[in-house]
Amino acid sequence: MNSYKYLGDSKMFEYDKYYRECQQQNKPFIKAKINPLHKNYFVQIDLMTCNYELSNSEQTSIKKLVKNEIDYVNSNSNYDFQGFSIDEELAWFDGISSEHLDEFCNALYDLAQKKIIVKTVLNFSRFYQ
After folding, report:
1. Percentage of residues of the chain with pLDDT beyond 90
2. Between the CA of residue 124 and those of 2, 28, 35, 46, 120, what are the distances in Å?
3. In terms of CB atoms within 10 Å, which of 17, 22, 27, 100 comes out highest?
4. Which residues, listed in sequence order, are joined to residue 57 by a DSSP beta bridge?
5. ∠ at Cα 35 (28, 47), nearest 5°?
6. What residue ranges define each of the domains in the chain, with the CATH number in brackets?
7. CA-CA distance, 82 to 52, in Å (whole number)?
8. Around Cβ 74, how many Cβ atoms within 10 Å?
C-alpha cells in the first residue's frame, strides 16, 4: 500500500484503487485532476473513507486557504477560479494552480489527518479507563 497524501492526474481505476486504500488505512481520499478548460486543477476531498466530518472551524480554515488561492489565480491566470464547495464530508475546488497544488492538497490532508489521529487516540483511551 502506498502512503502518499493525494493522487493526481491518474486513470479512473487508479482513483478507485486509491479510494479503497484510503478506506483500509482510515485516511482522507484526495484527488487532483487537471481541468482541460483552464489547465488548473480540480481537487476533491472525501472524508467518508475515514468516518470523519469537518467541523465549522475546519471548514472556515479551508475557506481561508481557498480565498488565498482564488486571489492568486485571479491575479496570475487567464482564467478565474471556477468555484468550490465544502461540507462536513465532501469538498471540491475548481481552479487550483499547478504552482500551489502540492501545498494545497497536503494542507487539506494534514488538517483532516490531524483530527483523525486525535479522534483515534481519544477512542483508544476509553479502553484504558
Report:
1. 60
2. 25, 20, 42, 24, 6
3. 22
4. none
5. 15
6. 7-124 (3.10.310)
7. 27
8. 12
CB within 8 A of 59, min separation 6: which ones? 86, 87, 88
pTM for the whole thing? 0.84
Q: Would the pLDDT of 119 be above 70?
A: no
- What one-character-per-residue DSSP string does 66-88 give? HHHHHHHHHHHSSS---EEEE-S
For the stretch 82-116, pLDDT in tens is 999 999 999 999 999 999 999 999 999 988 877 65
Q: Quick: pLDDT tens for 11-21.
A: 888 999 999 99
- The grid coordinates listed for 108 are 487539506
